[in-house]
Amino acid sequence: xxxxxxQRLVRRGAATAFLLTSxxxxxxxxxxxxLIPMPGGLAERLAFGVQAGVPHLLCLVVAIRLVSKGxxxxxxxxxxxxxxxxxxxxxxxxxxxxxxxxxxxxGVWCQLVLASVADGAVLALLPASGLLFAVGRVLFYRRxxxxxxxxxxxxxxxxxxxxxxxxxxxxxxxxxxxxx
Length: 180
What we know:
mainly alpha; Four Helix Bundle (Hemerythrin (Met), subunit A); 6 helices
């Protein structure tokens, strides 16, 4: 493997994801509040944050199902994780599940942190984050076998919206803390 070439592909995928994520997040903040009212009170904002986490949960359910079905249909894997290492086919599904668990946990918490400190148009980042998470997970899984460069777009589209939510929350919390 030419690691330098693979790293270039990873950077290209991450840069593409950054541009797409930035465009979707910006468009959401500008246009979504004109289409649906953003919640005002803390309880309503937190509920909105939880609801925006539904795509994360759905992706997690799909990943669990992929592993379950893979185990059920494979003589090498039906014994479960304790019976030995997974077959090559199941290994990809198990890796996808593990990564989805990690990303969903971080993503939903970043959304809830933003929901706890934001109000108004910034809350439109929450549904944008859920949408981008789901698209990122599909791209990540479908391109997994192609290597790090192939799955970089999906991975970055999964994590960047979470970082956008966390970054926005950090800015808002800092502004409030210092009264700017």
